[in-house]
Structure formats: structure tokens, C-alpha cells
Amino acid sequence: MAAKLYEKACDRENALSCNNLGVMYDNGEGGKQDYIKPPNFIKKPAMEELL
What is the dihedral of CA 32, 38, 44, 49, to 10 degrees? Predict the structure, then answer.
């Protein structure tokens, strides 16, 4: 449930939510552990700051 809420907030460019979602995927919280997705969510806010 939390991952879905973080994903919605991340889609709305909420940097903290993107980071939290990446950490959740990295730790395997709220679903299957995934080492590919976290960097994408964690880097997303940083890349948007540069634009």
C-alpha cells in the first residue's frame, strides 16, 4: 500500500517520495526485492533538479 502511494507522489515529482520508494524496492519492502528499480527512483528527483 505504501509503495503505491509513494509511486503516485513520485509521479507528481515529490522528491522525498521518489527516494522512499527507491529505498523500499531496495529493501524488498512492500513487494519483491529489486536492485534495478531503486537507482531509477532515487536519481529521478536529482535529474529533475538539473532541468
Answer: 140
At CA 5, angle to CA 10 and CA 48, rounded to 5?
5
> How many domains would you assign to the chain?
1
Per-residue pLDDT tens for 35-45?
A: 776 667 666 66
Tell me the residue range of the domain where 42 lies: 2-50
pTM value is: 0.66
Query: Reduced to 3 DSSP states, what percent helix, strand and coil does the chain have, rounded to the nearest 5?
Result: 75, 0, 25
The helices-and-strands tally (H runs, E runs) of the chain is: 3, 0
Write out pLDDT tens, residues 8-23.
998 888 888 888 888 8
